[in-house]
Amino acid sequence: MPIYKSISIDKGLLSVWQISETLEELLSAFTQEELADPAFQSFTFEKRKCEWLATRALLKQMIGAEFKVSYSPSGKPLLNHLVYKHISISHSRDFVVVYLHQDQAVGIDVESMNRNYAPITKRYLSESELGDVKENILHQCLYWCAKEAIFKLVEDEGIDFRKQIEVMALDSQKTYMTAKYTSADEETIYRLQYDIFHQHCMVWACNIPSTTIKF
Description:
The chain is α+β, with helices and mostly antiparallel strands.
C-alpha cells in the first residue's frame, strides 16, 4: 500500500493514495478495534468503505497511528494530533488526497478529468469564467477543484460558487492559481497550487491570504 505521491509544503504534508486495493485487502490492515469506529460502521456502500480505509491508511503512513479524526456538524474533518492541527480530505473514484498543516486551515480537492462538467458549468462558473474556460476540460476541472478547495478552507456555509468564489488567474507554467472569495464583510485573495496526474486535477490552498479587503 504505497503512497502514490507526496508534495513538500512548509509546515504541511500533502500525500496522494491510489485506491488499487480491494476492500478485503484494506480491511486486513486494520484491527477490529479500529474497524469498530462508528463512522466506518455506518457505511453501507463498498466504495465509501474503501475511501474511509484508504484515507486512514494514508494518514498512518503520513503521521503514524497516534491520531483521531472526527467531524464537525457541517461535515468538516477535524484532526486530533500532536503536531498537525488542520486537515482537508478529498477523494475521487481512484484516489484519496490528504492535506495537513501545523497551524493554518487548509482546503484540497481532487477530481477526474473524465467527468462531464458541461451540464454543471453554469452552476459554478460566472459569466466571465465561462468565457475563460469555454469547452476546455482541463480548465473546467481546475476551476471546480479551486472553488471546492476554497469552500473547504473558509468554513462558511451556503457559499454561492458562481458569485462568491472567482478564479482570477491560472498560471499553466508554474501551476499556480489566484482566486478571490467574497464573504459578507470582506474580499480575500488566495494563491492556490495545482497538480495534474493520471487524468486527475488536484488543487490545494492554505489560509494565508495574499490580500484581504474589509468592507
